[in-house]
TrEMBL record:
Keyword Thylakoid: no
Organism encoding this protein: Laceyella tengchongensis
Assigned keywords, A-Z: TPR repeat
SUPFAM superfamilies xrefs: lambda repressor-like DNA-binding domains (SSF47413), TPR-like (SSF48452)
Entry's Gene Ontology molecular function annotations: DNA binding
Signal peptide positions (record): none
TPR repeats mapped onto the chain: 270-303
Source organism, top-level taxon: Bacteria
Name assigned to this protein: Tetratricopeptide repeat-containing protein
Domain HTH cro/C1-type: 7-60
Amino acid sequence: MHIGEKIRQLRMMKNMRQSELVEGICSVAYLSRIENGKTKPSAPFIRAVCQKLGIVPDDICDDDSNKKKQRIANIISQYKKTRILNETDEYLLKISLFESHLLDTRINIYTILIRHYLTDNRISEAQQVFQLSKKSVPDEVPPDLTIEFFYYYLNCGNIFFSTQDYIKATHYYELAERLSNRVGEKDLAILFYNLSLVKQHLSQDKTICLHYSQKSLDIHKKLGNEVDQAKVLITKATQYNLNHQYNQAIKCLDEALEIVLKTENVNFLGMIEYNYGRAYQSKGEIDTAIKHYETCLQLRSKIGAEQPKVHTYRELILIYMERKDLGKVDQYLKEGLRIAETYQQWYHYVEFHMFKALLYKSHFQEQLYEKETQRLIDMAVEKNQLNLAKKMAHDLGRHYYEKNAYKKAADFYDMALRFEALLHAPTTLADSES
């Protein structure tokens, strides 16, 4: 990448117009020629522009500068200690993505930027870095870089988990698991916890996700990490709920609540209330469940945690659909769809639209139900939400069977079987689409 292109990239990262960058320095036309590689910039120009961009000239002038390489190495080392990346260092690392560096440096840069962007909820930027990494990261892991690749795979999995693409997330978490024999116990507990979450969404047999959550819990207990213990206990409660072991779920929540009240970590109270709601909803104690869900939403609002509300809205939608309270259903659907789209939670985004389609059916608008469900199956495939695609195809097959439209019923039953086959081969699918 020539100097002009680096200047252009940095300018765009800072959302600066050409006129803003060169004000008091030169003409926009001169900058355009430099950015297009038609004119070699002068030393005074480089110094002035770099000052405005918040970098030093070495950052863009000499890819092989020992001073620059040492600075990148220092940024990597410092980030691993502090998990803090300032804006200037972020830009230098991002520019370095377009330069030639040794594999260990590249893999560290990819990992740091992905993690940094995910922490700041800048998902699209994390995805951009991931796509760049796929062009230069080899499939085969060098023996001396197993730890670096472990963290790279772990953070790649986190990208797909954040957008609810659990198939691809599983693929990268399982790659990380193969390299986990040399990492610390705390990071191992994080990986096991993440695996428990993706297995929870993909596996019919919930004993698999309970196995991983227990492995994570055992490590946190060994290390004495009470806050992490509470988080895993809440997740175990969710998994017990899914496995129809409601009393076990409540027992986990009681244990988690005791830790949370002792440590005064109010962030987990919303999660606990939500899972109490799930347990009581499943036990048929609906009014008690609603109270827990409403308390959960209040707690989420109090601490400004909007994104997790989507799970609570889902359960309230199901309750009020059953009670045929369409006003409440519409209210929670609007809020749920807004949050799911804003945070790219594609599983819930498709599912909420699926609920809307089911409302058509309940109002005897069968053609609307059929047309919308077929559209949503395509959307679910596009977003890699094959569990939902399978469910909708199966439901549509049963719908047509009940209408004596046996040919259409058979087509959708076959489609559901194809999705089921793909779900049982997640690694292959992830490889082919990465």
